[in-house]
């Protein structure tokens, strides 16, 4: 498979004009890359306006009903979303999402036909999140100390975790940039990356994507 790069915009930007600008710059910069799969995950409100491979940063665990403020996986699927990030550490921390909630969201996403990406930082979270789920979902190993801190996990340490996660597709996330991205694929053995901060800077993100495309072409 081609390396998978997921851009997690988090709660940025604050206008549709900026979102379209960022999206179009990235789209233009990556249009000739054939050896990498790139998915943009903007905030919900921008999803209908960005036409290409898109994903969501979260979803609800039900299909529809009296759940004020929630966005269901079915809605996302019907909008053209392909992927959904579930259980990001920021949601575990600020929205108090538990492994049980995350497990319900994963099941709902799978039954709606979305491809979920389960974020974990420990094997315990992996086990609890996947309880009762036989399907091999995409896993993202994101050590919290590395998220948004500019202090990435060393490829050696990441490699150990990659080995311990016995899943076919595992992404690394946490302070990935154009300089260190290749290490996680080549040295640490990951199948892709989950990129936060660097995905908001088109120049940086395009450079990162090109570096991964280049090594993937050579393999
Ligand atoms: P970061 O975020 O690249 O800004 O560290 C990664 C993430 O939270 O998915």
Automatic annotation (TrEMBL):
A GO molecular-function descriptor: triose-phosphate isomerase activity
GO CC annotations, alphabetized: cytosol
Keyword Coiled coil: no
Reactions this protein catalyses: D-glyceraldehyde 3-phosphate = dihydroxyacetone phosphate
EC number: 5.3.1.1
Location of this chain's protein in the cell: Cytoplasm
Keywords per UniProt: Cytoplasm, Gluconeogenesis, Glycolysis, Isomerase
Record carries keyword Isomerase: yes
Domain of life of the organism encoding this protein: Bacteria
Biochemical pathway: Carbohydrate biosynthesis; gluconeogenesis; Carbohydrate degradation; glycolysis; D-glyceraldehyde 3-phosphate from glycerone phosphate: step 1/1
GO biological process: gluconeogenesis; glyceraldehyde-3-phosphate biosynthetic process; glycerol catabolic process; glycolytic process
Family: Belongs to the triosephosphate isomerase family.
Subunit relationships: Homodimer.
Protein name, UniProt field: Triosephosphate isomerase
Lineage: Bacteria, Candidatus Nealsoniibacteriota
């Amino acid at each position: 498979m081609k390396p998978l790069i997921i851009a997690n915009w988090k709660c940025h930007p604050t206008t549709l004009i900026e979102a379209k600008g960022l999206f179009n710059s990235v789209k233009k910069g990556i249009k000739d890359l054939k050896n990498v799969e790139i998915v943009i995950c903007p905030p919900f409100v921008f999803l209908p306006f960005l036409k290409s491979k898109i994903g969501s940063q979260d979803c609800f665990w039900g299909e529809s009903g009296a759940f004020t403020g929630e966005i269901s996986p079915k809605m996302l699927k019907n909008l053209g979303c392909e992927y959904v990030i579930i259980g990001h550490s920021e949601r575990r921390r600020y929205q108090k999402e538990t492994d049980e909630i995350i497990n319900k969201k994963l099941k709902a996403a799978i039954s709606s036909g979305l491809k979920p990406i389960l974020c974990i930082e420990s094997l315990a979270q992996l086990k609890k999140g996947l309880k009762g789920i036989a399907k091999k979902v995409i896993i993202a190993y994101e050590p919290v100390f590395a998220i948004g801190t500019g202090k990435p996990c060393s490829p050696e340490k990441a490699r150990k975790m990659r080995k311990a996660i016995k899943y076919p597709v595992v992404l690394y996330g946490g302070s990935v940039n154009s300089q260190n991205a290749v290490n996680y694929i080549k040295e640490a053995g990951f199948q892709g990356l989950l990129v936060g901060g660097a995905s908001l800077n088109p120049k940086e993100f395009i450079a990162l994507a090109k570096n991964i495309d280049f090594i993937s072409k050579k393999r």
